[in-house]
Every structure is written in C-alpha cells, then in structure tokens.
Amino acid sequence: MTSAKISIKFNKSLVPTVKDPLSTKELLARVQTLSEELSILDTIDKSKPLARIEVDLVNKKLLNHTSIGVQIYVCCCIADILRLSAPEAPYSANQLSDIFKAFIKQFKRLSDSNNTYFQQHCYLLKRLVEAKSTILITDVPDSEALIESLFQTFYNLTKQDFPSQLETLISDILSEVISEAEVIPHNVIDLILNKFLLHDDSKLITGNITSPEFTFSLTICENNVDRLSRLVGQYFSEILYESSTTDKSSTDLVELMEKLTKIHKLSVQLWKFIPEILSSVMSLLDDELNAEDEQIRLLATATIGKMLGCKESKSNFFVTHKETWIIWLKKTSDVSSTVRAKWVEQLPNIITNNKYVTSEISSALSTCLHKCLVDIDDKVRVGACHSIKEIPVELFFNKVITKNIVQDLFQTIREKNVTIRNVTIDVLGKLYNSHMNNRELLTDEELTKMIGNIPNQILNLVYINDKDINCMVDLSLFEALLPITELDTSRRVKRLVQLYSALDEKGKESFIAINKRQSQFSKVLNTLIETGDIFAKSTSVEDIDKSVFAKLDKILNWICVSFPDDRNSFVCFERLVKLARPRFFHLIKLCISSDSDFNTIRNSMKELFKKLSDSKNIQLQGETAISTSDMVYNVKLLLLRSSVLCYNKSNVEELIEYTKDSTTANEILEQISLVVPDVFKSHIRSLASLIIEENTKKSNVLRTVYHFVKKYPEWFPKEISFMESLKKLAQVGTPREARYAVKIIGISPSKELYSAEIVNEIYPLDLESEHFCTHLSSIGELFKADRLSIIDKEVEITELLIKHLFLTNRNLDREQIDKFEWIDEDELDDNKLHSTLYEKVLAIRLFVNNLKSIDDSNLTSEEKDKAKAKAQPVTRLLMSFIGNNGEIINKKNETYPTPEPYKSKLRLTAGVYLLKLAKFPIYNELFLPPTLRRMTFLINDSEYNVRSKFVTCLQAKLANEEISEKFLPLIFFIAIEPNHELKESVTIWINSMVKRSESKNNIKFEKSLIRLIHTLAHHDQFLTLIEDGSNESKVNAYNFSCRFLTYFIKLIGKSENISLLYYLSSRVKQYRDGSLATAEYEKSNLPEQALHLYRISELTQLIIKQYSDDKSWPLATWPGGKINLPSDIYAPMSSPEEARSIVGRVFIPEDIQADVLNSIRKKLHGSKRKNTPLVSSSVPKRQKVKKTVKTKSPSEPTRKSSRITRVDYKDQLSDSEYGSSEDEN
C-alpha cells in the first residue's frame, strides 16, 4: 500500500434531512462504504469532503441511531478518523465526550460473539488500540465519569461469555488510560484491586490464567507499576489513618476491621503477582508490626507470613525487605500470645513454598520455632506443634530440625494439654517412620540418635497411666513406629529389631507390657464373640436370657475402662455384638488368632474397617445411629490391642536368623515365648538347632526354648544331640546358659538320667575350676529341676559355700574393680573379672532355690516347721547382707573389705531373693516387722541401681499379688528418693494401683497406713532423733516421719476415704504394740518404745486433719464397721480403762506440735525444693574411671542402713531443712 496521501472518494451525505431523507438501509450502506474506504487508508489528504464527513459522523442522529449497524459503522469510521488524524483529534472536547459514550455503548455488545456486527465491534477495539486513541478520554471535561464507565463496561463483560481473544486488546486500552489519566477515580482503583482479592489460585494450577478480569488488572498493574505503587500506598494509608482515628467503641469498628482485613489480603495477592507495586506499602506494614493495637499487629503478622509463604513470588522478600523480615521475626516475642500463635501458623507455607529460603533463613526460623514450642501460652505451643505437623517431613529434616526442637518435642509429648500432646505424638511418630524409611534424610549423628530415641519417648508415656495417652501410644506404635502397612517380612523384622535395640529399660518394659496385654485382650474378645454368637442364633432380643446381657455389660465395661470417654466405646462395641454379623466375627477371630500370619491379620483388618465405614452396615432398626468414625476408631484400637502383630509367627523365622548376630533378636524371641509361645510350634526345630550350633551365645535362645516347652512339653525336641548340647552347656557354658539348660532338662522326660550325669561330671565342686561359676549355677538350678539328684549333697555344699565364698573374697583385682560403679547381670555373666561376686550371687540363688524346691502343698505341720527352720539361716544371711551394707566378712580377714560395687550388688541380690521367698506362704511367716524394716533400707540405699531395681521388683510382686499386703508400706519409703524420674515413676505406679484397688472396692492401700505407722515408729532414724532428748531433735524426728506420711496421704487421701484414714490412724491408740513384750505394758510407766507408736499415730492424725482442711473436705466420723488391726504387729489392750487412758492422752506436747504443724503445712503445700539425702557421707567419693550404668543419680542418699553403726542425725536433719519443705510430688 502506498504511503502517499490519498483523498477520500466518498462524497455522499450521511445525515438525513427534510430535503434529503435517507432510509435506514441506505444510511447503513453509506456508512458501511465509508468505513470500508477509511479502513484501508494509512494517511489521508484532509480535504473539504473529509471535514464534512468528520462533522456528519459526530451528529447525534448517527451516534444515537436506532440501527445497531449504523451505530457500529459510525463508531468504526470515527475510530479510523481519529487514527488518520493522530496525534490531533478533529473534534472538540464535548464532541469527544459524545464519541466515547458511543464507543462505550458499543463495547457493551462485545460479550455476544454471535451478534451480526461482532467483527465490527472487534475492529473498533483494534483501531482504538493501534492508534492509542482511547487516551483522548482523559482530555474531556467528564473524563472521570467516562473512565469509570469504560472500566465498568470492560470488567462487566467478563461476567458473561467473554471472547478470550479480546483480553490483550482491552488490557492495553485500560493500561493506556491509567497511564495518561491525571486523576484516576477511586472506584476504578477499587475495581482493579478487587480482582486480585477475588482471584482463585486454583486457576493457576497449570500456569495459564483463565480469568479475563484478573488479566486486565494484572496487565494494568504490570504496565503502571510506579503509578499504581503510589496509588496503592495512598489507598492503604487512608484506611490505616481511619483505623487510628476510629473510636474503638464505635459501631464502625467492625466495618473498619473488614476493610483492614481486605487490604491485607490484597497485599498478599499483590506480592504474589506484582511485588514491586508494594514498595510504598511495606513501610506501612513495618509500622503495623509495632502498632499498639493487637488486632493491627495480628493482621500485619499474618500478612507478612503469607507473603513469605507465597509459592511463586517473583521477588526475594528476605533481601528486598530485610528490615521488615527482621521485625517480623521478633513477633515470636510479642506481648500478645495471639500474635505469637499467628506467627507460628505461617511457618509451614514459608518452609514449603518459599524458594528463597537459605540455610541462614532456616536457622532463624528454627530458632523462632523453638521459642514457640516452649512458649508459656498453650495456644502458641499448639500452633507450633500443628505447624511442624504440616511441614513435609523431608523439608523438616532438611531445613528446620535442630536438637533444641527435638528436645522440645520430647517435652511437649508429656503436656497436660491434650491437643499439644496428641499432635506431638503424631509428629514424632511420623518423623521416626520417615527416618527409618530413608536414613539418608539426616546426616547429623546426634540428631540421628535423638530421632532413634523417639520410640522410648512415646512408649514411656505408658507410665503416666492415662487412657487417652495410652490410646495415642497404641496408634503411634502400630501406625508409625512399627506400621502394620509394612508387608515385607524382612524389612518389618529389621524395623522391629532396630526399635527394640534402641529402647532403654523402661521403654522395653512398656513395649513388653503392650504385647503382653494382647493375650489378655484376645481372651476377652473371644468371650465377647461368643456372646455375639448367642445374639446371632436368637430370633429376637426378647429370647435372650438376662444373664447374657449382664455378661455382655461386664465384658464391655472391662474393655471400655481403657478407652477414651469421648468415643462412645461402649455403644460401639455393644452395637457390634448386637449386629451379630458372622463375617464380622470371623474377621475378628482371624485378627486375634496366634495361628494367623501377618498378612492375614492385616487383610482381615482392612476388610472389617471398610465394612464398618459404611453406615448401612452398622445401623439397627429402632436403635440410635452411630458414627462410622467412632465405630472404626474403637474397633481398630481394640484389634490393635488384641492382635498378634509384633510377635506374629511370620516374624519368627526371620528373628531366628537375626539371633546369630543380634542379642536383641534373642530378647524378642524370649518375650514371644513368654507371651505367645504358640507361634513357635512350627519353629522349635530352628530354635533347637541354634542351641546345638557351636560358637554362638545361647542364653537368650535357651530362655526362649524353656518358656515354650514349659507351656507345651509335648513339643519338647526329641533329638539326642539337643539333650547332649544342654548337658554340655550345664558343664562348660556360661552360668546363665547352664541355668536355663538345666531348666529345660527339668522338663524333659529323661530329666533324672541327664541330671544324674551332670552331677557326676561337676561334683564335687572344684573351687579352682575355670567353670566353677557354671557348676554352681547348674547345681543351684538342679535343686528345682530334679531335687533328688542333688539333695544328698546339700550339707556339704552349704558348708563349702559359707566357708569359701561368703566369709572371704577370692581372686580380687581391686584396681580394676574400683573402676566400676555398678555391675549388671550381663557383665557378671561375660566378665571373669567379677567371678568373686558372681560366686556369691549364685550361692545365694542356690540357697533360695533349695528352699523354693520344697513343695509345701502337702506338707504336714511338722514338715512345715522343719522347712521354716531350714529357711531361717538363709533369711538371716540375706538380712545380714542388707543390714551390714553388703559386708559380712570379718574385719580381721585379709580379704576385707568387699569392694563397694560388690556390696551394692549383694544388697540388691539379698533383697530380691527375700521377695522371691516371700511368695511362698510357708516362708511368708518368717517376714517379721524387723525384717520388713530392714528391707526399707534398700529403697533408701546409697546406690541408685539398688533402689531402682529393688523397687521395680517390689512393684512387680505387689502388682501381681504374689506377696503379702504387709509389704505394701515399703513402697512409700520412696518419698525421700532424690532421683526425680524414679520417684515420679513410682508415684505414677502407686496411683495406677490405687485406681485398680478402688475398682475392686478394696481398701488395702488405706489399711497399709496402719503398717506404715508401725514401721515408722520403729524406724532407726526416728528412734535416733527422738531419743536424743532435745526439743529440736524431737521436732526433727517428727519431721522425718512426716515426709513419708505426707507422701502417703497426698497419694491415697481422697474426699471419699479421708475419714477412713483418720479412723485407722486413731485406731492405733486403741492397741498395744505387738512387737513389745506384754510385761512392758504391766510397768507403772510405759516404756518409750511403746509411746512412739502413739506419737506417730497422733502425727498421722495431724497430717490428715491439716490435709482435709486444705482441701475443704469434711472429716466426718467413719460410717463403716469396726476394723481390727493386724495381729502380727498390734495386740489388744488389757482393759477398757487402759484404752481410755491412752486415747485421752496427748503424746506430742503442744510446744512441739506448733513446729511440727508448720512443717506439715509446708510439705502439704508442695514447694519444689529438691530432696536432700538423709545424711551426708563422711567418706570421700572415689574417682571413677569407667561407668557401666548411665542412670546414676546425681544426688543419692548415703545412709549405710545399719542400726549397728549408729549415726548422729541431729546435724543433718535440722529444723531449718524441714522448714523448707521438699518436693513431695
């Protein structure tokens, strides 16, 4: 096309007149012709005909013509005129105003792509863009109104079927207008910015923006960053100023907060797409972060957090707005907990989405997260835990995790706040699971060790004895720590071994307890299914006997005791039974059967849960609807507790393979043999082969086989090589191997033959034999396995052991021994260095086994007396070990003294074997009050391991009711335990046992107060202090006893039983001390020892009275019947007069009572001062070279537990010490 100026050829009239009327058809033809002619021109010679045309085109008859066709062609012609006349417009301002009104009118028709003139409308738009003619709108008088109308028109088009090809054209037009307009209407700014607020991020999933109105706003902002930055800043400032001047009590406050929320949301959207536009806003946000108003700070904190969490931001906030970033980090120290909580909520998106996060940024965020995890406010800690949960594990390991954070999680796992605790358990479980699935995620050794300790942290929660916590532990164990989703047996067993090997002693006990519980739950569940079968066989509920419903209630109540209260457990399980679906029962039976392999259990669970998830399957006509989530949760938890998962038979063969290289696998196998020995039925040959093999440690395997064949003697291995291996181990194995080899032989049908052969090989005992300890162990076990094979040598063996083992120390290497603080069982069995100690321990076991081997079920009274007489020297021997601090060798003996670690071990061994003897009724009578008092020395021993292990043994015996209730008061001597963890553990155990006792309506704990009073009245330290004579010393004596009594009352005392406790303590004054001779009470003046009992009784009453007052509990008269005190320690009064004289007499003088009451109040109010030892050691502590046990208490009592060596306690138990009461919790 030529660039020369061309004159227009069109010369016809366009405006109809009276003289020259034009039909619409003719007019349409003329303007169409003119439009076509103008459209092909690039330039034009401005001749008169053009001037006339320019005038005609803006005639209102044309602009407002009734024909749409005429209107659009006229507008197209004008657009071309403006194009050809550029840069000058041949129209006046008023004419331009009319023109743009006509244009806007045509733009409204762009939404209909099917209209006849759609192409002309598009042409009009295109011509205006090409020539930038739209900017002329800024020169007309009513430009603001026209600009607003133009924007409204184009934005409204998008609400209908908008042609996507016009997006760019319209965006360019609007951008030009914003660029050239001197004043931009407020409504236009609102319109542009609102599209950011309304934009849906989901439309950007594929990276293609499909929202036309958003495209308009985005293009406008991108093309006018500088200008809109100022406008946005001004827009924000106006609203912020309004917020600062608004009366906080004003009704406009809500509306204002809505505006503030809106602009902050807008800030986030603008940051996401055009971060540069916020340059004027960031300083305002800085001010907001430091504003006095909490709501303003809250909004600003959330806004900055969301900006930092934007996924596709084009700008690095940490660099471009560094000052704002630093201020924002400080919001973790904001005075408002709501602001702090809001801060930590932002963390997951920042870590997950922000591509600019460096190691330095990560470190700063981790430090702040640590602060939030230890925040004093619950909601901040809740938010921190939830944030960690939302962060993908890989990113958490790569960017967030620190030792402090993991340690924080180990603390929050024990929170009282349920949400914090549950979320933390969930988080730690997921961290552990991810780490075990991909160990390369962590490279830091210390962090790896901490993550490996997670199972300990979770499993130890069992000791809190809270049913909600226990449920979370169960779910975490089987969903995260040892997930049931793992189908590969090799990986599953490897995971099991790794977990168990990382557990500490308490963790192992918890893990074992959880698996032991399976057997109990499965039995109950079987009974439940049997009850369900009755429902299945009945035609109607009315046909079922009432006893069945009573039985069902009893079973369900037993199960639901350990289930959460808010999950409708009882209703769900009752519905499960009443549904009587044979398929449901069949699937449950498969899950809890020890014969089911792992995949069978898992698939059965999966099918059952799927069926229970369908509401149609769990509804009964006429019954209340049950939530499927509750039903699935309860049944799932019940099956996890009842199914053989960890100890499944599918795992056994793999575990047996592991035993060749792993002692952990051996331990697990032994536990399986104790809990579910049934699973070994198909694996006993493999276990037997491990015993037959040479050069492998066999003690654990031997224990496993023993527990199995003990329950299933019919499965005893028949191979001769197996028996020969056992016989060999009894002669040359380790002492522990010999012990269990003989135990197994004792179950064999040929035990007499092999026992005799063993005795012939090892007897007489050779003290110099390298296998002397092994032979001693075998003989000790033979007393139980086959008593007749060794009983004829009993006297000779006893003389040998007393003379050469107990009364002397053989083969001591004191320099090496002094490197040890404690010697555990494994070290004894593996280390020849401690053979002297091991000999003594084995000799004690031999004596006790000899006594235990006597079958007291059919003994005559004469035979029982003989058995008791035989036991007395043994019990005296054991008591002398305890009473003499583990030392019974004469000082004149050249091997004196026994090394300290050995004495500690001997004290513990003596105590543990005394408890073993106490299980037998025939020997229980030998445990008189002095013996029991001596055993309290072990609970307050100077060595932590002695205290801990003896208490653990005592707890087990009491929990299983294997020993008499007279041992129960011993446990309360833990009151002065300096190791907080041990004391807390025992306290939790006591609380648990009290709950169990209450559920059975048993008052044995309350009644144990009677024995505790008697024990304290005869306690060495109380006697030492009370007999000193001075009032100060007497106060200290009462304060000493008060420590135990307050501990007891705070644990046992409740509003329901406080009257009973008071009654029992006062009842003591109606009895004589049964341990004193009757003649003592016949004297005119009662002996001091008789008075001590009544003094402790009064002290107890003072404590109970004070405690009930503190709790505002009424101390009413005990409404129950008369309770007689135990006759072994109490004797009746000779007459009512004697009783009245004792009851009416006060045994604690008033001047002493005042000081004692002051101490009682401080102890009951539970100040947190740390316990101090009873006495300080006068012997300097040895420097230890080697530590074999890491649980050594940092502060331990140093009493040497002997009445023989009297200690002056006056200085150690001063009144000032007791005035600052110890931690009694």
Automatic annotation (TrEMBL):
Signal peptide: none annotated. Residues 1165-1225 are annotated as: Disordered. One of its GO terms (biological process) is mitotic chromosome condensation. It comes from the Eukaryota. Keywords: Cell cycle, Cell division, Mitosis, Nucleus. Residues 1181-1190 have a biased composition (Basic residues). The keyword Cell division applies. It holds the Pfam family PDS5. It is found in: Nucleus. GO terms for cellular component: chromatin; cytosol; meiotic recombination initiation complex. One of its GO terms (molecular function) is structural molecule activity. This is Sister chromatid cohesion protein PDS5.
